[in-house]
Amino acid sequence: AVWNGAAGQVRxxxxxxxxxxxxxxxxxxxxxxxxxxxxxxxxxPYSDAGTIKTAAMTISRASGDATFGTNVxxxxxxxxxxxxxxxxxxxxxxxxxxxxNGAAGQVRxxxxxxxxANRWLLRANNAAESGSSAGTAFEIRPYNDxxxxxxxxxxxxxxxxxxxFGANVAIAGNATVAGDMTITTNGNQGDRxxxx
Length: 196
Fold this sequence. Notes:
Mean pLDDT: 89
Oligomer: single chain
Low-confidence stretches: none
Structural class: mainly beta
Order of helices and strands: EEEEEEEEEE
Number of strands: 10
Shape: elongated
Helix content: under 10%
Distance between the termini: 83 Å
Number of helices: 0
């Protein structure tokens, strides 16, 4: 089947329930001004009363870019690109926010990989949220070469902003501590803390 209309005119395929519009697949009416501009592809929902709503999806004929009119839910994994890939959030005209939303008591992770193998992890951990801002501490954790998760290099509690380091800390400049600082050694002879 071919929907053939003049450029600059809407061409719709509509789905109805009892004669009332529910969805429209559309080639829209932007003028075809050269360089593949115009006649973009769109999918529209309709209200119960059959009133057309904002486009759920628009695909540019020129670039192939897809724009979604509201939230996008991905059931499992979302893959983008094959070599150098950039994810852009926002258009640079205001604030941009990315939420990793999970249940309290569950981990929420952002992972960095090399060739598909995990290397670093940013995590809101699964410590129970029992009130008074307890639980869901922030962690930065490494993976070894085999991709096995290691202990946290840095852990920060939500309740008091306490910072814990999982190994040695080298400070190449001044350090200001606005509270108590606890230094724990492994008890070996020669362990030392120098203050000048």
